[in-house]
Amino acid sequence: MLSVPSVVIFGIDVVTFSVDLLIIYAIYLVVSLTLNLEAGYSGIPNFGKAMFVAGGAAVAGSVSGRLSAFIVGISYSGDYSNSAPAIINRLNAALSLNPLLSVEILLLGVALAAGIGAALGYLASYPAIRLREDYLGMLLLASAQFFQIFLRSYPPVIGGVQGIEIPDFFGWANTGPGARDVVILGVVTLFAVSVYVYFERIARSPLGRTLRAIRDNEVASRALGKDDVAIRKRVIIVASAISGMAGALLTFYVESVGPDTWSRQDWTFPFWVIIILGGAANNSGVAVGAFTYAFILKTTDRAKFLLQGILPSTTFNYLQYLTFASLLVLVLALRPEGIFPEKPSLTLKRQTVATIIETKANAPEQKSDSSMKENS
Amino acid sequence: MAIGLTLTYLTTKVPNFAYGSFVTIGIYTALSFYSLYGISPYGALPVAFLVGCLSSVGMYLGILRTLARRGSSLVALMIATLAIDIAFVGIFGIYSDYLYRAYHIIYATNFPQLPGDFSLLGVPGIAFVAPCSLALITLGLWTLLTKTKFGVAMRASIENPSLARVLGINVEAVYVFAWMLAGGFAAMSGAYYSLWLPGGIDVGSKLIVEIFASSVLGGLASIYGAALGGVIIGASEILITTAGVDVFGSSVGIYQKGIPLVFMIITLLVLPQGLISLKVGMAIRFIRTLRSFRLFKYLHLRGS
Fold first, then answer.
1. Burial class (CB in 10 A: 0-12, 13-18, 19+), A273
2. Where along chain B do its domains lie?
3. Using a CB-CB distance cutoff of 8 angstroms, which residues of chain B are in contact with residue A47?
């Protein structure tokens, strides 16, 4: 039996609050890391991030519910999205008794989300490698807008306007109050940490330096034999696949998915705030930026409930938009490189660098020679 | 609408993601006038134009120029316009909440089309007024740009800012003027929009697909192209959807918004300079053919 203690301060359950905050933080972190790989390291201005996250969330939501109903053997008449409210409790009961099946469907959903993310990324990469930054930005923004309209107006995917409920695949973990969320926190933390390590390794590898070279001087990198078209294409596909997985995990956490979530305001703009705030092309900066964003978002969400009598909650949402927008413009104006600026990539250990400097100091006649070697 | 976007793109070379929100400014001006004073959106038109002008100039001077002077990159400026768009949605939201609390206008965040239109021959007046104003604006801009000294100065500062500066043209003033016109036109079209279609706080942001598509199709570097693109996109959206519904049934109607997107993608991949380049390109090719023909004749004569 796992049960989470509750510590209440100022009428807020601190433990539940921080678990929720950390889950959202992990998901935001993953998506901002992918945007950082695209925009920060490779210079691809992805203004359509919402589309890739939404793609993953939609496919995970639409497939997992139907599939589990089919396997558990609950029949429903008509379309799944219409009958979901009626059968969702029976589905949840059946799934919570069958952890293995839950986990299998969960993994399948995440894998499908990665697939659809990669497919959307492949589609997006076609114009991305041919167009200039400004045209590409417009095209991706417009595509994301259309994708949202498509989700809203095509009911078979996620039930059109009202969205779709999906069963709880973490029901087996719900052995005590709050235990489910702790398990989910574990899963998303594992996911976020592995994505972080993977991206950090990319950034420090020769590939990371190639990406920066292509970003800073496309012609020169091409002259050095780097295939910039192929590399950009791969970057978009990998980043989009991971964004899709993050979308799927979010869907499984909140147990529903609807079209109105995936607006530009909520799923493209925040990640730009995060990477501008934290520092583009710097993964640790992005981690700090994502935490700042998630923390401000969640605490103001809390404050919204506390202040409900004084300010209507919708006004509060709009104030949030206004706050983040002004924060972004201020950072752009006052500290465009972010809290943590991009660092030159260190390829040698610090000790090795120190030894080289020492030898250089000891042999001044070879100074120019050795410094040339370092540069190359 | 697209005319204004093209104007701002021409002057600052930044695609303005906040452009749709200027349309919303017009919609909300019309709404306030209608619901507070009972004035029809036509009456709100001048005020909408003014408010649009002011906010557009404010955005340009206050944010974009400041950022550009601090050496922001193109992508940074694009992000800034995105942020301004989000801020605008926030401002309209707060404003409509205020309308609700202060005046009990319950439908302020999402409202149906506004009444107050006159009708002519059984057709709503807007069906005549909107195309006429488009023609008037295009004609007016054409006159301004080709017949007046200021217009020539404007074109010079768009084509070659440094040379224009050398000639003593106040390039900054020209840019501010262009932004002012852009904001004003957008807000005006917003007031028209409110007569025809339901409005809401993020209507402008959602229109961005059509606006970008019109500008890109016409050619981002041409004002006349934008007018042409706007007409083509608007017409094709309606016509193709109607035809599609006739052929495939009503289920294709939902893809209406996809048509501008498809147009935009095709234009960007096939004809990145837009429709307007087609005409110029053909003219150049035609002249070249003529020239080579003459040259050939000349050589031929010499040879014989």
1. buried
2. 2-207, 276-304
3. 17, 78, 82
